[in-house]
Structures are given as C-alpha cells and as structure tokens.
Prior knowledge:
Blueprint: E1 4-11, H1 25-34, E2 39-49, H2 60-65, E3 71-79, E4 83-91, E5 95-102, E6 112-118, E7 127-133, H3 138-155, E8 162-167, H4 175-183, E9 186-187, H5 188-193, E10 210-215, E11 217-225, H6 228-231, E12 238-245
Parallel strand pairs: 1-2, 7-8
Antiparallel strand pairs: 1-12, 2-4, 3-4, 5-6, 6-7, 8-10, 9-10, 11-12
Amino acid sequence: MTDTLRIGTYNIHKGLSSFSVRMVLHSQRELIRSLEVDIMFLQEVRGKHDRHSRLFTGGQYEFLADSIWQSFAYGKNAVRSDTDHGNAILSKYPIVQWENEDISAHPTEERGLLHCEIEVPGWEKNLHCICVHLGLLGSWRHQQLVALENRIKSMVPDGAPLIIAGDFNDWRQKAGSTLAADLGLKEVFEHTMGKPARSFPSVLPFFRLDRIYTRGFHIHQSQIHSGPRFANTSDHAALTAELRKS
C-alpha cells in the first residue's frame, strides 16, 4: 500500500524536437524514464504514423510505456489518412477502465478528454485521472472546460481522488479560477509557487500553458523540467509533482 504518488505531464509534440526538426522519440523515452513517475499524462502522442512505423513497434504510447508503465490508455483525437494523435496516460498501477470523450470545439481542431480509473493497492476508492489538451482559442477552451466540469460532476464520485493534467493552452490564466471555484481543485504550482508553471517554450519557458490539478491530495513537491536538454526533445517543458493522499 502507498499513500504517495509521483505524477508528471508532458506534451511530446508528436515525438518531434522543437520546431519539428527531427524524430526524438527514443530520447523522449529516456527522459520520461528519468522523471521516475508512477503516472504520466502525455499530449500530442501518435497512435500510428506510416512513415515512422519502421522506427518502433506499435503506437508511440506503447513505445514510451515499454516495461516501466505496464498499464496505459490512448485517446485518439485527430485522425488523418496516414496518422493519428491524441492523449495518453501511462500507469504503474492497473487502469481498470477508461474512456476518451470528444470535446472538439471546431472541426479544424480535434480535441479529446481521456478519463481513466486506476486501481491503487490499498486505496478505498479508485483514482480518477483525466488527461486534456485544450484548444488554441479562448472561446474553444471555455467550451471544453464546461465539458470537463460536466464530466467530473457526473462521472467522478464524491470523495474519489482526482488528478487532471495536460496542456491547457491557458496563456491568459483563466482556467484555474473556474476549476478551483467550481470543483474544489488545487493547481499544484499555484499551491507551491504561487502561480502556474512557465512551461513553453521549453528552452526558456515564459508562457504558463501546462497544468496539474488535484483533489484529495496534499501537495508535497513540484518541479519544472526545462532547459536545453528538454528543448531537444519537445517544445514544452515537463512538469512533475509528488502527492500524498489526504
């Protein structure tokens, strides 16, 4: 039995380096492993790509999970003739059920909400994890936040531990107040540092785009993983947090 979880979120930019210069999925796998998290929330993950199929077997989420995270789920959002991409959750604990909800606000930008229930040994209630990647326009994000709120109210039991993480594209910092006020959530970096994390661009982060929200946890530690090493593997920094169930 454990009361402590280490979790992370990372937009892997479809396995490409900043500016989409080259495929860096192998480097991303090593970097994600170095974070030593129990549960990883990933955005812009490719399920398939015909031209890259010779580089690894299966979807990118399977390659990244490898032997470290034995349970995983992939929510396919954007589908093209030769490729698809979406969100993924990798977990060291069993994912007992999952669903991907379409929250697209416009036909040109497909978005999804990946909701997993995870069975953590010794916990009375399953852990609910939701991975999101919200839209580029404020009106789209507002619509998607309403969908997220509705899902939590209808699908997450009162008292069940909850983690929401991903790329909120929330450079105007409006999402936090909505989620905190309506759902009783804490944003990890607001709690530990006073403001959401600067996570984009990864080489020298300025914009506060990525988030980790929790309910039912004490927040013990948070960290932004950025700089040249991370710039070589994605245009977003990775975020991690250590949580203890309250």
